[in-house]
Write a structure and sequence with these properties.
5% helix, 8-stranded antiparallel beta barrel, mainly beta, elongated
Length: 159
């Protein structure tokens, strides 16, 4: 599939769409997560800017509440969306993340993600994908695991 994508002609409406150069996107995420023998309510938001057609850079933040210790995550990221596809656009990306954990030293991580955006309107889409995250300088005695793979689902609004 990746070999065929460069051969597809890009239509102006697609480039001018949600993933066109100069566009801004906002994403919201709500869900549950499990860490430190606690279940957390997670709310997250991100903003991104498309520096080139299909190539976005941004910043996201998550707040984990309802468990102890409290957790906050901040992540700069980059992603490429294969915008040439009309209704379902695959994406790949990478990120760096700093996680602040109340009462524990913060920890940094790097990761990769991939999935699909499904158009839900002219300026909105739903994304579904997978993330793999590896923690840097991780002490497994404190954090139990030094890498994780998890699902990633969000609603994105483009302007």
């Amino acid at each position: 599939m990746l070999l065929v994508l460069p051969a597809l002609p890009a239509r102006a409406a697609e480039v001018d769409g949600m993933f066109g150069q100069g566009r801004t996107q906002y994403s919201l995420g709500i869900g549950n997560a499990y860490a430190f023998d606690n279940t957390y309510f997670v709310i997250g938001a991100s903003a991104s800017y498309y520096v080139l057609d299909g190539l976005g850079v941004g910043l996201s933040m998550e707040n984990w509440s309802g468990g102890d210790p409290a957790i906050t995550k901040v992540s700069p990221f980059a992603q490429y969306v294969f915008y040439q596809m009309p209704q379902v656009q695959p994406y790949v990306g990478g990120f760096y993340r700093h996680t602040a954990i109340a009462g524990l030293p913060g920890i940094n991580s790097v990761g990769a993600r991939g999935g699909i955006f499904i158009a839900s309107g002219s300026n909105s889409s739903v994304s579904v994908g997978l993330v793999h995250e590896s923690y840097l300088d991780c002490d497994a005695a404190i954090y139990r695991a030094c890498s994780a793979t998890y699902s990633d689902i969000s609603i994105t609004f483009g302007f």
